[in-house]
Design brief:
The structure is a single chain. The protein is α+β, with helices and mostly antiparallel strands. Among the domains are: about 80 residues, no CATH class; about 90 residues, Sandwich (Immunoglobulin-like). Helix content is about 20%, strand content about 30%. It contains 7 helices and 18 strands. The strands form 6 sheets. It has a 4-stranded antiparallel beta sheet, with no helix packed on it. It is globular, with a radius of gyration of 26 Å. The chain starts with a strand and ends in a 12-residue tail after the last helix.
C-alpha cells in the first residue's frame, strides 16, 4: 500500500510501508492513499483514544497542533469481486496466477477462486516435461468471472491424459477430514462445479454409511426434503439452529438431526414451517425453497408483478421470492409449450440436490455470502 502525506507548504512524505511514525511541523495536512483496485478505503484518525476524523474515500485532511499525538488507521475492504477459474487439458498442470496489487497464487489445475478482487489477471502454465505456452491474461470485472484454459500436447502429458480418460474422474472433496470421491458426480456433468462449490464451502455434502463413513455418493438426482432445506439455509446464512429454540420442534415429523433446524425455523416464523403439521420429510417445492432461502438471509421480498412467468401470478404462493430469485439470476424458468413466449417456473415442482447446489452457489455469489457450515451427510 502506498501513501503520500503533504502539507500546505512544501513538505511531502511518500512511503509504502504498513506502519511508520513521522515527526512533522504544525500545520494542515492531507493524506492520499493508493487504493487497491476493487477495494473501498476507510481512514480513521485518532487523537489519543479519541476518534478525531473519518473518511470513506482514499484521502483525508486534518490539522496537526504542537503536542498532538495523532494515529492514522487505514482499512481496505473488498467491495468488487468475481471468480477466476484455471483449467487445463489434461488436468494436474502446475500454474502461477498473478493478479492486482502483487497477488500471486500457485497451484495445479483445475482450480477455482471465489471472491477475487477485480482487475487484470495473468496465468502462466508450468507443465512438467513440456514446453511452456505463452502467458494468458484477462480482466476480471465485478460479479463476473474469467476462465483460463489451455490444451497441452507433449509425450509426458499425453500419457497422463490417456490415464485420465481411462479412469472415470469425479468431483472430490473432504468430509470430516476424509477425502471423498463423489462417484455419482462426474466432472463433465452440468452440476459438477456447483456440487464442488457447496461441498468446498461446507453447505452441502454427501451421504454417509451406517457407521458414519462417507458413502462416496452426493445423490444429485435425489429430491431435497423440507428438513434438508432448513439445514442448508441455516448453513448458508450462518445461523445457529440452537439459538433461542432449544432444539425442541413442535412439528412431530421432525426428529434426529433435523429437530434443531425445524425448531429454529419455527421460532424464526419461516413461512413454510409455521404450520407444524407439514411433513418436513417430504420433497420441498421450488417456491418453498426460495422463500425459505430469502427469509434465512433476511432479504425483503418485492410485491410480485405476476407477469414474469406464465404459471406464477400475484396470488401464487411465494411469488415475491420466485420473481426476486429470477431477477437476481439465482433461478431461471423454461419456455412453455405450443410456441409460448412466456417462460414457466413450475413453482410446485420438486427440486433435486443438483439443482439445490446450483441455487445455493448462485445465491452465495450474488449476495456475496461468506457462509460456511460444518460438513454433514445432508
Amino acid at each position: 500500500m502506498g501513501w503520500t502525506l503533504v502539507n500546505t507548504g512544501d513538505l511531502m512524505i511518500k512511503d509504502n510501508v504498513k506502519s511508520r511514525t513521522v515527526s512533522v511541523p504544525v500545520g494542515s495536512y492531507t493524506l492520499f492513499i493508493d487504493q487497491p483496485q476493487g477495494y473501498l478505503t476507510d481512514i480513521r484518525i485518532y487523537k489519543g483514544s479519541e476518534l478525531l476524523k473519518t473518511s470513506d474515500s482514499p484521502q483525508i485532511s486534518f490539522s496537526y497542533a504542537a503536542g498532538d499525538d495523532l494515529k492514522v488507521f487505514i482499512h481496505f475492504q473488498l467491495a468488487f469481486s468475481g471468480q477466476v477459474n484455471v483449467v487445463s487439458t489434461p488436468k494436474g498442470v502446475p500454474f502461477e496466477l498473478r493478479g492486482p496489487e502483487g497477488l500471486i497464487m500457485k497451484d495445479v489445475t483445475p482450480k477455482s477462486y471465489d471472491a477475487m478482487p477485480i482487475g487484470l489477471y495473468s496465468v502462466r502454465y508450468i507443465p512438467e516435461g513440456c514446453t511452456e505456452t505463452p502467458p494468458k491474461s484477462d480482466e476480471l470485472r465485478d460479479e463476473q468471472r474469467i476462465d483460463f484454459s489451455v490444451t497441452l500436447k507433449c509425450d509426458v502429458l499425453q500419457k497422463q491424459e490417456e490415464e485420465d480418460k481411462a479412469s472415470d474422474y469425479h468431483i472430490t472433496t473432504e468430509m470430516n477430514g476424509t477425502k471423498v470421491v463423489y462417484e455419482d458426480v462426474p466432472t463433465t456433468a452440468w452440476f459438477a462445479t456447483y456440487v464442488s462449490s457447496v461441498s468446498r464451502r461446507g453447505i452441502m455434502s454427501g451421504y454417509q454409511n451406517g457407521d458414519g463413513t462417507p458413502s462416496n455418493s452426493f445423490g444429485p438426482d435425489n429430491p431435497v426434503t423440507l428438513a434438508e432445506v432448513a439445514k442448508i439455509v441455516h448453513g448458508l446464512a450462518g445461523l445457529d439452529e440452537l439459538h433461542g429454540a432449544a432444539g425442541i420442534a413442535l412439528n412431530q415429523s421432525a426428529g434426529g438431526w433435523s429437530a434443531g433446524y425445524i425448531a429454529s425455523a419455527e421460532a424464526r416464523d419461516w413461512l413454510v414451517f409455521v404450520t407444524t403439521d407439514v411433513d418436513v420429510n417430504r420433497p420441498a417445492m421450488r417456491g418453498e425453497v426460495l422463500v425459505t432461502l430469502y427469509q434465512a438471509l433476511d432479504i425483503p421480498l418485492p410485491w410480485p408483478s405476476g407477469s414474469l412467468f406464465g404459471d406464477v401470478t400475484r396470488r401464487t404462493p411465494y411469488a415475491g421470492a420466485i420473481e426476486l430469485a429470477a431477477h437476481d439470476g439465482v433461478v431461471a424458468g423454461k419456455m412453455g409449450g405450443s410456441g409460448s413466449t412466456i417462460p414457466v417456473f413450475e413453482p410446485e415442482s420438486t427440486i433435486n440436490r443438483a439443482e439445490m447446489a446450483k441455487i445455493v452457489t448462485l445465491a452465495m455469489d450474488k449476495y456475496k455470502l461468506k457462509a460456511s457450515s460444518s460438513s454433514s451427510s445432508r
